[in-house]
Design goal:
105 residues, alpha+beta, OB fold (Dihydrolipoamide Acetyltransferase, E2P), 3-stranded antiparallel sheet, 2 helices, 23% helix, globular, disordered N terminus
Length: 105
């Protein structure tokens, strides 16, 4: 039963396994870029030139936790597993991550 629920969850969520290339914080918003992502799974709200970019607010419920994960991954050259929120609720035109987990290269 748990495997079925996990499979359904993964079908409806974009998941990326990549490194963090660029990181910028501006006006309480964190922007970061990954080197690869499946554009066919990108939500329609994302601008075409932002397909490899993500953004979230530090003021969101888990924003500071997401920022720690991105910062740690970039500073230690680790990859991140990103589960998309499938929306652009924090910054128009940028996909919002729902969860970020660091992993080894």
């Amino acid at each position: 039963m748990h495997k079925i629920i996990l499979l359904i969850f993964l079908l409806f969520c974009t998941q990326v396994h990549a490194g963090v290339e660029k990181l910028k914080v501006e006006n309480e918003i964190v922007y970061f870029t990954t080197p690869n992502k499946n554009p066919t799974l990108t939500p329609s709200c994302v601008n075409s030139d932002n397909v490899l970019k993500w953004a979230f607010s530090l003021n969101s419920i888990n924003g500071r936790h997401l920022f720690r994960a991105v910062l740690m991954a970039q500073s230690s050259n680790k990859k991140v597993d990103i589960i998309s929120a499938n929306d652009c609720n924090d910054v128009a035109g940028y996909e919002r991550p729902k969860a970020i987990k660091t992993s080894t290269l």
